[in-house]
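Chain A, query sequence.
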Amino acid sequence: MKLNVAVFFGGESVEHEVSIISAHQAMEALDKDKYNVIPIYVSKSQKLYYDPSLTQMDIYKDLDHLTQQVPQITIVNHDNVFEIVPVKHSLFGKKSLGMIDVAIPVMHGTNGEDGTIQGYLEMLKIPYAGCDIFSASVGQDKVLQKHIFHDAGLPITNWFWVYAKEMDEDPVGVLTKVRKLIYPVILKPARTGSSVGISIAHNDDEYRQCFEEARQYDEKIITEKVVKPMREINCSVLGDTHNIMVSTLEEVGHGEQTEFLDFKNKYIQSGKSSKSSQGMASTARIVPAPISEEKTKEIQELARKAFQLLGASGVCRIDFMMDAETNTVYINEINTIPGSLAFYLWKETNVSFSKLMDYLVELALERERRKTRMVFSYETNILENFNSQSAKGVKQ
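Chain A, predicted structure.
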């Protein structure tokens, strides 16, 4: 009997379209002999839509038309049977559009990858692949992430963070911190992805401009010392805290005129030569990364530690920066739902994209089995003898 696997994608995020690309790659990779693939599209207004036609990329050329033609749905838990129900249905229309056995979130960025979709699935009690609420939210927030890495002794660059309002209230104080890092510096919104809102400043005037750009996407802004000359090395990690596998490394290239791999390099320029963008899979890269065996093992071990430290699960990608002159390695960030699910990093280890998706399903079901053995509530009701009169002075 086939499992009903729902792939959730889209969402209210600047990475909405990237999520659609990654999800369709994942749905193509799911073995149709094992799974019934259920595409669940999350619109930019956070509404859910389902129809088998959502597996076709052409339908996303006009998103307004899509949301008018495809049924909006909700998901209902009936005694742990997860049913897809249309929000509106005609007198003779279907009352149910199918069932879900397991979910695979492929939502990038805010309002999805950051713990939002995980919380929704937790409330419904649907088994799902990937990071749980806690590791997803920390994985999205680079400020929390860096504090954890620093406290654990993992290598990160010199940095600081401020709330955006601090630039309005004390610009001299912020710029003083920047000068201590020494220009050039890189500015990042704390909770976005795909290099959105990220830019490099070489002086105070540029810093102010870059800060204004970054604050459009987040109220928490990170400033880091630029590693230059820099090599970007990535490693994917697959599994959970009980069993961790690390992938082959990649070195990521970028345009000659840019100092880092930005959104345009990742998804727009790279997709121009083909009919449909292949997301992160089409980015210029060298696999395996042309670095020594010693450095490869060092980065893989750091990736393993970071993954376990954050309590991550599913398939993630850990991004590193390496000083091209000293070969010093720094952890940049974790991507808890990486573009294209980082499938291209597993080919060298004989893990096909289809097998990668099998692992994700297995990890989701295994986590659910572990959760059923845990205690989350007591079979008691302390309100049975509740006296409203005696509770009036509780706050005094």
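Residues 270-276 have pLDDT under 50 and may be disordered. The chain has three domains: 3-128, 140-153+229-370, 159-225.
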